[in-house]
Write a structure and sequence with these properties.
Elements: H1 2-35, H2 39-54, E1 58-68, E2 71-82, E3 88-99, H3 103-106, E4 111-117, E5 120-125, E6 131-133, E7 136-137, H4 145-151, E8 155-167, E9 175-185, H5 188-191, E10 195-204, E11 212-219, E12 230-241, H6 252-255, E13 259-274, E14 277-293, E15 301-315, E16 318-330, E17 335-346, E18 350-361, H7 362-367, H8 376-385, E19 388-401, E20 404-419, E21 427-438, E22 441-454, E23 463-477, E24 480-491, E25 495-506, E26 512-523, H9 537-546, E27 547-562, E28 580-593
Parallel strand pairs: 4-8, 5-8
Antiparallel strand pairs: 1-2, 2-3, 3-4, 3-5, 5-6, 6-7, 8-9, 9-10, 10-11, 11-12, 12-13, 13-14, 14-15, 15-16, 16-17, 17-18, 18-19, 19-20, 20-21, 21-22, 22-23, 23-24, 24-25, 25-26, 26-27, 27-28
């Protein structure tokens, strides 16, 4: 029984193969002796059929026939497709077509090879925005049959083409893409997944002498259904003058409020898309001599070099912007190296910012402060503080809601740090150390030399400091901020010693201070630097003119109480322990005091 079944299958296969071979032989003979000799008679019929299919005038110059291996081969020259104004919109000077025998089982023409050489194509956008490709209006109802049929081929390519872009809407001059090569590959095993690979290169008529290359890997089988397509495309632009493309490209779509005025270099851009929407954009740039303007009335920012990686991702929950390996140098000898960061914005209004810098000179920010897109309030505060110094290993994480801060984390090492006294806050200069802080707590570890402290609202003059080392920490609880100073060692020509203190900032009850300071030595003639302003003009004048000189040793200072009650005396200038304690003890020698009135 099994042998009979196998024999039957063998005979059936033999006859099927025999029929297929005979059919192929007779078809080949018919092509060779009936079609090939009369190909010129079919030329006009083919042109008429193509004109009817495209609804445009099609003219075929010449057809040569032959064999390419076992496949029938046609070499077609001078195919012209005209637009509605009877102008040549697409010129195919040399086209090679090899028919595949798979056409018989597939019941449609199938090509073993399709090569279009040196075609010329015109793409035109009219003043009202209509786009015509080879004379075909793109806003017309889609007729995807030809394009879909091409996608079903194993491979086709276009060699040494020329594409001309005419943009009447922007009033731009003609832009041509020369030496354009296109290859579309759809292997049989990948067609099952609707997968196609596109490779394109072309040299634009302006902007660069190097070819622009595009590699795409896409999935889909019907161009009339763009929402069903997905995939990625990568473009490479080398040694280009970026602003040369401004007449045809609207850079504001990419740079928003930034006006790119000049720049040369290379860029690599990768786009991922799905459902007719861009899902992500990743780019690498390396640019020289970049000039851009952030505000209309501001001076332009000039950068000698700009390099880094930029990424944007769109998700159902929101958008993410990422910058990595960003390096730049400006013409005023300012540099930024290996910076990174990301910004997340959700549809619910949540914001998150992460910045990481290996090194930054705050003078860089000050130099371009006027050009940055900052609010008037933020700009006023930064100008008032005028920060200076260098930051290393900076890490900043910020979370917000509708622009308001919810939380943040900051960590950095600083050197030569300084700000001006501003809005009742003290200033300083040339501080070095490390800071760790968040919305609730923070700590500064100081190790500074040759610094200056400016308590503008408390003391009359800045205090020079030869050495300053110690820890300052704080904790925020609602309207109350608790600041603690631990073993703050200070040394200058005025005094040498250690300060421990707790400072309570209370928006309701007022500020309070609990300070204990011990100084091994001091010079009385510099005491006027440390008299609080709130002692009043009369008291300050008396102290300034009375304590003239003297050496102090084993100085102990205690201040405990609310600052509004300092120096803790009643209406008759008598000490009032209920208000607080202000005590200074010291060993004094060679003291000169002149009692005045």
């Amino acid at each position: 029984m099994v042998k009979k079944s196998l024999l039957l299958i063998y005979r059936l296969a033999f006859w099927l193969i025999s029929i297929a071979v005979i059919t192929l032989v007779f078809t080949a003979l018919a092509i060779q002796f009936l079609v090939f000799p009369n190909i010129d008679h079919y030329k006009n019929n083919i042109a008429t059929f193509a004109s009817a299919a495209t609804k445009q005038k099609v003219v075929i110059g010449n057809i040569k026939v032959g064999w390419q291996g076992f496949n029938p081969h046609l070499a077609v020259s001078n195919i012209d497709i005209y637009d509605a104004q009877n102008r040549p919109a697409l010129q195919l000077k040399n086209t090679d077509v090899s028919l595949s025998w798979l056409s018989i089982p597939l019941l449609e023409p199938h090509l073993a090879n399709l090569t279009v050489r040196t075609p010329e194509l015109t793409i035109r956008r009219t003043s009202n925005g209509d786009i015509f490709v080879a004379g075909i209006r793109m806003q017309s109802p889609a007729k995807p049959d030809l394009a879909n049929w091409l996608l079903r081929q194993t491979q086709f390519e276009v060699l040494n083409a020329k594409v001309i872009w005419l943009d009447e809407m922007r009033g731009a001059p003609a832009l041509s893409l020369d030496k354009l090569n296109l290859q579309v590959i759809s292997p049989p095993w990948k067609k099952l997944l609707k997968n196609h690979r596109l490779i394109l290169s072309a040299v634009p008529s302006t902007g660069t002498l190097s070819p622009i290359t595009i590699n795409a890997n896409v999935y889909g089988n019907d161009i009339s259904q763009p929402t069903e397509w997905h995939g990625s495309a990568e473009a490479v632009l080398q040694n280009a003058t970026l602003t040369a493309f401004k007449p045809w490209l609207d850079y504001s779509m990419l740079t928003h409020t930034v006006d790119l005025q000049s720049g040369t270099g290379s860029a690599q851009v990768k786009i991922q898309f799905a459902k007719a929407q861009v899902q992500s954009i990743a780019s690498k740039v390396a640019l020289d001599q970049v000039q851009m303007q952030f505000k209309a009335n501001a001076e332009p920012v000039i950068l000698n070099k700009l390099a880094g990686e930029l990424r944007w991702k769109n998700a159902p929950t929101g958008q993410t912007f990422t910058v990595s390996h960003l390096s730049l140098s400006a013409n005023n000898d300012l540099h930024l190296q290996d910076a990174s960061g990301d910004y997340v914005n959700t549809l619910q209004g949540d914001d998150a910012l992460h910045i990481k810098l290996t090194h930054i000179d705050l003078a860089f920010i000050n130099a371009y402060l006027g050009q940055l897109p900052l609010t008037t309030d933020a700009l006023e505060k930064i100008v008032g503080l005028s920060p200076t110094g260098k930051l290393d290993d900076l890490t900043l994480n910020w979370q917000g809601q509708q622009g308001a801060t919810k939380s943040y984390q900051l960590q950095a090492k600083f050197n030569g740090l300084g700000i001006l006294a501003y809005a009742k806050k003290p200033g300083f200069s040339n501080l070095s150390g490390e800071i760790k802080a968040n919305q609730s707590t923070g700590k500064i570890s100081l190790n500074s030399v040759n610094a200056i402290l400016d308590f503008k609202n408390s003391l009359r003059w800045p205090i020079p400091v030869d050495q300053l080392a110690g820890d300052i920490s704080w904790q925020v609880n609602g309207l109350v901020t608790h600041i603690q100073v631990s073993r703050l060692n200070i040394s200058n020509p005025h005094l040498t010693g250690t300060i421990n203190a707790e400072y309570l900032m209370d928006a309701v009850k007022g500020d309070a201070l609990d300070l204990t300071a011990k100084f091994s030595k001091g010079d009385a003639k510099y005491a006027l630097f440390y008299y609080p302003i709130n002692l009043g003009q009369t008291t300050l004048h008396w102290l300034d003119t009375s304590i003239l000189s003297g050496q102090l040793e084993d100085v102990n200072v205690t201040v405990k109480g609310r600052l509004a009650d300092f120096p803790f005396v009643d209406g008759k200038n008598n000490l009032d322990p209920k208000l607080g304690l202000f005590r200074v003890t010291a060993n004094i020698k060679n003291c000169e005091v002149e009692y005045g009135i």
